Amino acid sequence: MQTPTKKQDPFAAVRIPEYRNLMMGRFLFIMGLRMMATLVGWWVYELTNEPFAIGLIGLSEVIPAVSLSLYAGHVIDMSEKRKLLLRGVALYFGCTLLLLGLSTKFTAAQFSNHWIAFSIYVVIFFTGIFRSFTGPTFGTMVASIVPKELLQNATTWNQGVWLTASVIGHASVGFLIAGLGHTGSLTIISILVLLGFSFMYQLKPKPALNEPGEKKTIDSVKEGLKFVFHTKEVLGALTMDLFAVLFGGAVAMIPVFAKDILKTGPIGFGWLNAAADIGSFIIIIFLTFFPMHKKQGTKLLLAVAGFGICIIVFALSKIFWLSFTVLLLSGILDGISMVVRGTILQLKTPAHMRGRVMSVNSMFINSSNELGQFESGLAAKIMGVIPSVVFGGSMTLLVVFSTWFKAPSLRKMEY
Predict the structure, then answer these.
(1) DSSP code for 265
(2) Are 388 and 248 in contact (CB under 8 A)?
(3) What is the C-alpha separation between 303 and 298, in angstroms, rounded?
(4) What 3-state DSSP class applies to 413?
(5) Residues of 119-139 as b/e, b for ≥16 C-beta within 10 angstroms?
(6) Which end of the chain is more exposed for a tag (fewer CB within 10 A), N or C?
(7) What's this model's pTM, rounded to 2 decimal places?
(8) In this model, does residue 329 exceed pLDDT 70?
(9) pLDDT digit string (tens) for 300-312?
C-alpha cells in the first residue's frame, strides 16, 4: 500500500473553475429532478390512492432508460459531450413545463384523475429517454476535466453534490407542496433546471476521443460490455448494487408509509424521503476529509449488508422517528457504497470507453432505482406493503452473502 507523502487537499478538485461550473450545474439540475421525482410520487398516489400506481412511475422511466443505455454509451463516446449534455438538460426542461401544465386547475377541471396520471406516465417515459444520455455524460465530463490523480477527490465531491441536491430536493418539496401546491412547486423546479443549464453552458467543448464511424455501433457496444464483464471488480460492484437497489427499494413506498402507516402529511413525507440522502451527505462530507485508504471492497460489502438490515427495520417500524433514523443510517451505508463504486469505475475505465462503461453503470444502477420502484409496487400489491419491504431487505442480505463468496476479487479490492 502506498503511503502518501503529504496530506491530501480535500478541496483539490473544486479549485478547478470548470469543475466548479459542472458541479454547480449538476447541483441545480439534480435538485430540480429529485424534487420532481418526489412530487410525482406523492401526486400520483393522491390521484389514484393505489400503491401499484407509484410502481408504474418507475416502470415508465426504466423501460426507455434501459433500452437505450447501451446505444447511448456509444453515442456519448462518439459525440462532443458538452453539446450532448446541454441538449439533454434542455429536453428535461421541456418535460418540467409539460408537468407544470398538467398540474393546473384548468387541467384538473377538464380531465379525470386517471387521465392526468396517465399523462404523467407519458412525460416520465420521455425523461427516461433523455436520462439515458445525460446521466452517463456527467460521469464522462468529470474525468475529462480533472487530472487522474484527483479522480478520487473529484468522485467524492461529485457524489456529495448529487446527495446534497437530493437532500434539499427531497426535504423541501414536502414544504413546497404544503405551501405552493403542485403548480407552484413545479414552477420552482423549472427555474432550477434552467439555472443548472446556465452553469453547464459555460463548460468548454469536450470532443470525442473516437472518430465517428470508426466502429460500427454494434461492435462499439460489444466492446463496452466486454470490458465490464471481464473486469471483475467493476462487474461485482455493479451487480451487487443492481440487486440491492432492486430489492431494497423501500423509498418507493414512502408515500404509502407516510400517509397510511405513520400518519404524517406532506412535510413528514418530505423528511422521510430526505432521510437516506441526509445520511449519505453526512458520510460523503466525512469521506472527503478522511478518505478510505484500505479494504474498500470489504467495506462496500458490509455497507450494503447494513443497508438491507435498515430496510427491514424500516418496514416493521410504526414510529416516525425510528423510521427516519433507520433511513438516515441506510443513507450513511449507501453513501459508502456510492463512493467506493464510483471510484472503482473512474480508476478502472480507459478514457475512450467512459461513455459506454458509464452507460452500463447507468443501466445497472440508476435504472435499477426505477425498476426497483416497479418491483416494490408490484410486490406491495401481491404481498402487502410491509411484507414486501421486509422481503426486499432480506433479498439484499442474500445478494451480499452470495457476492462475498462469488466475487473474492471485489472483497479484496483496494485502491
Answers:
(1) -
(2) no
(3) 9
(4) coil
(5) bbbebbbbbbbbbbbbbbbbb
(6) N
(7) 0.70
(8) yes
(9) 889 989 998 998 9
